[in-house]
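Why does residue order matter? Because the sequence determines the fold. Keep that principle in mind as you read this record.
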Amino acid sequence: MKRVALIILTLFLLFINISADAAQKYTKKTIKAVSSDGFNINATLTYPKIKTQKEFKTVVLLHSLGYNSQWWGNLPQLLLDKNFAVLTIDLRGHGKSVYDSTLERVSWKSLKNSGYAKYPEDVLIVMNKVKEENSKRIFFNNWAIVGSDIGGSTGILASDKSKIRPKTIVILSPVTETKGLYIPVSIAHLDNVDILAISGTDDIIAKEASDYLSKFAQAHFVEYTSDSKTSGMLMLKNDESLSRVITEWISGYFN
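Structure:
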């Protein structure tokens, strides 16, 4: 029993040391923004602690419908390992972004299409909030988006509205339209933005959407099939290589 207790204590101390090292290497900030209709949007900005670095190449992560920003697996860490900043956003009705202007709790399940239509604007408001709160640093001159299903659609629409376009966009399980967010026209507007569209092996709907969307692309539109038989963010869990594929793709546009 003493030996078992010693092993457990050793593992616990190792975990504490790893967590402490990670805390020393990165700055982590909670971002709270208020949308144009008073909805409270929450996000987390994490970036390496490099005193001499003022500009950070930034990756915005937009989750799937019904999920939240905690479902990205090891992707955020791989991006941080490349010295990128990572902004994870809880879309309205998800995670910590569930309170409207009256502080009434609102789930994504009860949102109407008019609420989902605010998603792209919400993302841009969060990005502006990051700029305001970090005036001594630059985060979105060089940036990219990774979005899953509705998060991918939101990323496309937000990019179309952004003054500075992202270097590239990665979409997991792309959809042509969901909850009223129609993206083919916006893809046609992104004439200098390459897109990586990722579908699961058995995700026929995503593959059909990807083929259709590729017809509107004015830049490179690359279709990639994951070994995972699932869809959306679950592909990251079931295909261990996928996070690295995404990280390397983005790195190619930042370096």
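The chain has one domain: 27-254.
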